[in-house]
């Protein structure tokens, strides 16, 4: 259906090296990333936050689709994806993603909302891509 791309550059060793991330759209152009931003909380991006943003965006769009199929339209949805990177064996792995959704959807009851949010979580292409535990906390605002 569609193919797009992101790219990364890197110079130096793992701890002293510096990288830059770019996207086809130009949303990111040579945006810095590196060991310090990934593991030490320093300024810059990292792969996990990018995966989190992609997962949150994909899930929220998937939920919009599922809501539309149920004849519902969101007034507002906001999703945060917490991506956990942990040492596993000799390397590292993304061990979980926790999606936290807050939504205002006129005409939706909580049971239907939870069912549709679960359907969106399962059907989201990024959820399907990630080989990790994915949890969801969905809050319907009144």
TrEMBL record:
InterPro entries linked: KH_dom-like_a/b (IPR015946), OsmC/Ohr_fam (IPR003718), OsmC/Ohrsf (IPR036102), OsmC_Ohr_Peroxiredoxin (IPR052707), Peroxiredoxin_OsmC (IPR019904)
Domain of life where this protein originates: Bacteria
Cross-referenced Pfam families: OsmC
Protein name as annotated: OsmC family protein
Species: Bradyrhizobium jicamae
């Amino acid at each position: 259906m569609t193919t797009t791309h992101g790219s990364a550059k890197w110079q130096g060793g793992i701890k002293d090296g510096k990288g830059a991330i770019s996207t086809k759209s130009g949303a990111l152009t040579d945006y810095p990333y590196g060991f310090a931003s990934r593991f030490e909380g320093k300024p810059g991006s990292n792969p996990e936050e990018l995966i989190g943003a992609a997962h949150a965006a994909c899930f929220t769009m998937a939920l919009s689709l599922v809501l539309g199929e149920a004849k519902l339209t969101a007034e507002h949805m906001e999703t945060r994806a917490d991506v956990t990177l942990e040492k596993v064996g000799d390397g590292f792995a993304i061990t979980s993603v926790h999606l936290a959704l807050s939504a205002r959807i006129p005409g939706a009851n909580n049971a239907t909302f939870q069912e549709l949010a679960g359907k969106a979580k399962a059907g989201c292409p990024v959820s399907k891509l990630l080989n990790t535990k994915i949890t969801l906390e969905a809050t319907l605002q009144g």
